[in-house]
């Protein structure tokens, strides 16, 4: 029969279908999407974080975080809307036991709802609707869908959004479906994207008046037609370049390649190296000069989904000056799962630096485990915990008596890592968690 949603009548569901979805009440919280096709331009909404979901970049996610509301606002742009979208989160990017927002169309009407999938990947409407639809509008570039989700909903079927990595999953509905239950999640084009949804709320410091910039990009690289490429490019600082402080850096990505540039780093070479030959090419070929292996001191690192990085006002990362190398190495990781051919790229990193040195030199401390056979995971383990300690003997020698101030942290493992935590201990007791990620992936650092 006809059920009324607010003041507008809902489309008539066949009673049998409704009963199978959840008693007849389900029609009440099926939000009917009336997409105004006359195309009002989106009000400029501040979504500071942006990432492509799929390798072609047909789905583009932007989001913002409200800590007072403890909620995330999502905006998905569907450049080719087709018949709907699955979007959500799961423990490690699986489509089983996932928490999903679903937009679907039966060819006449469009519907939006909060759903979950069971261990077989079958979708079910959630009895508690926690993905809240805020709006949808058609624009020249595609369909914008706006919705919001609280970090934690107290719904056992919902994913808890917490610090660290979040595995986002997406699926594209290419045919109309008569109901949510009719969607076969294993048959739709689908994939996953890893992001850090909860960005730290760090205020942006003022840049000094004498800030200069240096653009470090590998010019006109033809991205190889293979899934993974690490591209190396060498850069030379000017002769007698005095000591400067890097105060900020940001990614510079060639338009259209946002889905291909996975991460980028700028390294400084070891001071002992007299000369480093010029090189632009894959990092893993025989052609690469051996000297580049001694260019490992990190000056800047960016990964997909990240914003510009600012040093705190009182510190900067030193480069240049006597006793430091004039040679830098840019490394760009291209992730090209569709094996696209002939794509040209000139992406890289822009450094912002100043000659007015700040009070403190920032440094990068690497801690955890050295690579040894002792770290081997015994066979047959479902999970295995490895711990590395930076002991008081070590910190006493390496750190100044007044100690250090930690203002940023990045976790790192190789392919077997699934969770990482860094803990600060004093007098043998754990005092603070510096950084933790319970959904960690080595593919997104």
Automatic annotation (TrEMBL):
Its main location: cytoplasm. Pathway: Catecholamine biosynthesis; (R)-noradrenaline biosynthesis; (R)-noradrenaline from dopamine: step 1/1. One of its GO terms (molecular function) is L-ascorbic acid binding. GO terms for cellular component: chromaffin granule lumen; chromaffin granule membrane; extracellular space. It catalyses: dopamine + 2 L-ascorbate + O2 = (R)-noradrenaline + 2 monodehydro-L-ascorbate radical + H2O. It is a single-pass type II membrane protein. GO terms for biological process: dopamine catabolic process; norepinephrine biosynthetic process; octopamine biosynthetic process. Pfam families: Cu2_monoox_C, Cu2_monooxygen, DOMON. CDD domains: DOMON_DOH. Residues 57-173 form the DOMON domain. Its cofactor is Cu(2+). Keywords: Catecholamine biosynthesis, Copper, Disulfide bond, Glycoprotein, Membrane, Metal-binding, Monooxygenase, Oxidoreductase, Transmembrane, Transmembrane helix, Vitamin C. It is found in: Cytoplasmic vesicle, Secretory vesicle, Chromaffin granule lumen; Cytoplasmic vesicle, Secretory vesicle, Chromaffin granule membrane. The chain crosses the membrane at residues 21-41. Its EC number is 1.14.17.1. Catalyzes the hydroxylation of dopamine to noradrenaline (also known as norepinephrine), and is thus vital for regulation of these neurotransmitters. Belongs to the copper type II ascorbate-dependent monooxygenase family. Homotetramer; composed of two disulfide-linked dimers. This is Dopamine beta-hydroxylase. It comes from Crypturellus soui.
């Amino acid at each position: 029969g006809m059920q009324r949603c607010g003041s507008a009548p809902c489309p008539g569901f066949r009673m049998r279908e409704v009963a199978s979805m959840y008693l007849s009440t389900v029609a009440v919280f099926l939000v009917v999407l009336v997409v105004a096709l006359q195309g009002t331009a989106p009000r400029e909404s501040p979504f500071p974080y942006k990432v492509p979901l799929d390798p072609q970049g047909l789905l583009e996610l932007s989001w913002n975080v409200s800590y007072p509301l403890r909620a995330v606002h999502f905006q998905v742009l569907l450049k080719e809307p087709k018949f709907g979208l699955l979007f959500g989160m799961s423990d490690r990017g699986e489509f089983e036991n996932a928490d999903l927002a679903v937009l679907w169309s039966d060819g006449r009407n469009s519907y939006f709802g909060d759903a979950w999938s069971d261990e077989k990947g079958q979708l079910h409407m959630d009895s508690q609707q926690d993905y809240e639809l805020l709006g949808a509008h058609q624009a020249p570039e595609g369909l914008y869908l706006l919705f919001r989700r609280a970090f934690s909903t107290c719904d056992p079927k919902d994913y808890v959004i917490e610090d660290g990595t979040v595995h986002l999953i997406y699926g594209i509905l290419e045919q109309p479906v008569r109901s949510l239950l009719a969607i076969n999640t294993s048959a739709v084009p689908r994939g996953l994207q890893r992001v850090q949804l909860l960005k730290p709320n760090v205020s942006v410091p003022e840049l000094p008046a004498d800030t200069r910039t240096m653009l470090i990009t590998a010019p006109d690289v033809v991205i190889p037609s293979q899934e993974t490429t690490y591209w190396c490019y060498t850069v030379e600082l000017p002769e007698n370049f005095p000591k400067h402080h890097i105060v900020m850096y940001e990614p510079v990505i060639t338009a259209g390649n946002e889905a291909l540039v996975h991460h980028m780093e700028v390294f400084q070479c070891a001071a002992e190296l007299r000369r480093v030959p010029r090189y632009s090419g894959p990092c893993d070929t025989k052609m690469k000069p051996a000297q580049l292996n001694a260019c490992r001191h990190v000056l800047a690192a960016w990964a997909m989904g990240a914003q510009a990085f600012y040093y705190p006002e009182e510190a900067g990362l030193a480069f240049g000056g006597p006793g430091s190398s004039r040679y830098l190495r840019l490394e760009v990781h291209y992730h090209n799962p569709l094996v696209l051919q002939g794509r040209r790229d000139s992406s890289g990193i822009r450094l912002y630096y100043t000659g007015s040195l700040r009070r403190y030199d920032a440094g990068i401390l690497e801690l955890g485990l050295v690579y040894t056979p002792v770290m081997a995971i015994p066979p047959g383990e479902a999970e295995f915990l490895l711990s590395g300690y930076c002991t008081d003997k070590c910190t006493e020698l390496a750190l100044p008596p007044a100690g250090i101030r930690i203002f940023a942290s990045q976790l790192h493992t190789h392919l077997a890592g699934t969770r990482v935590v860094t803990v600060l201990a004093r007098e043998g007791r754990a005092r603070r968690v510096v950084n933790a990620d319970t959904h960690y992936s080595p593919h997104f650092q």
